[in-house]
Amino acid sequence: MAEDQTLNLRIEEALNSIRPYLQADGGDVELVEVKEEGDVVLRLTGACSHCEMSEMTMTAGIEETLRRAIPGLGSIVALKN
Fold first, then answer.
1. Residue 10 maps to which CATH number?
2. Which structural domain range is residue 30 located in?
3. Which residues on neighbouring strands pair with residue 79, listed in sequence order?
4. What does the pLDDT look like over 22-35, one tens digit per residue?
């Protein structure tokens, strides 16, 4: 249980490092769930939820940031509103 909370905190810290860039364009990202196998589910919100570049933002920005900060994560997927 404590390990899950630690992983969630590490993910939130990594997301916080990229949030200012997303928020500058009117968007944001939130952590929805970390599954038992280490898969991460995020939700793109605001302008990011319908932006044509959201897939690029997800892979080149958010996913890369998370993988660099926390090696060994499973898949990283983003839901759109």
1. 3.30.300.130
2. 2-80
3. 43
4. 999 899 999 999 99
